[in-house]
Amino acid sequence: MVKVGISNATATNSYLSSQILSATNDTLMKKVMKECADKYASANDALKNSFQDLSAELYDYAYMHVMAAADYPNACHNAFKRYPGLVYPQELADRESGLKHICDVVLGIIDAIGF
């Protein structure tokens, strides 16, 4: 299930990178999309770390990394809130929700196996 989360974060990062290219005239939107892409890259890294932690049976560290991965999309959403003129794209909201749900499942699994 962690690999599903990694896939989601990677796909969202790619989506955001493509949106940066298409927002050529809107420097503010490009800035926020770049910040979001960075957050999803960090979520990806956190999930990769959790995968390694799970392999080593370090459940407390795995839990911490998954919690971090679930929270990175909030920073992206908050970046949009800082600029009232920017609208949080529905596609991004759906991806955020998906990653959070995946992380919730992973956290439940970690709880069940030994945290």
Quaternary structure classification: single chain
CATH fold category name: Butyryl-CoA Dehydrogenase, subunit A, domain 3
**CATH architectural grouping:** Up-down Bundle
Gyration radius, in Å: 15 Å
Globally, the shape reads elongated
Counting DSSP E segments of at least 2 residues, the number of strands comes to 0
Number of helices, counting only DSSP H or I runs of 4 residues or more: 4
Mean pLDDT rating: 93
- Give the CATH class: Mainly Alpha
Measured by DSSP, the beta-strand proportion falls in under 5%
Low-confidence stretches: none
**Which percent range fits the helix content?**
over 70%
Summing up helix and strand content along with how strands pair, one would put the structural category as mainly alpha
- Strand-and-helix sequence, N→C? HHHH
Largest sheet: none
Instruction: Tell me the name of the CATH homologous superfamily.
Output: Invertase/pectin methylesterase inhibitor family protein
Protein name: Pectinesterase inhibitor domain-containing protein
Domain Pectinesterase inhibitor: 1-109
Pfam family, one: PMEI
Family: Belongs to the PMEI family.
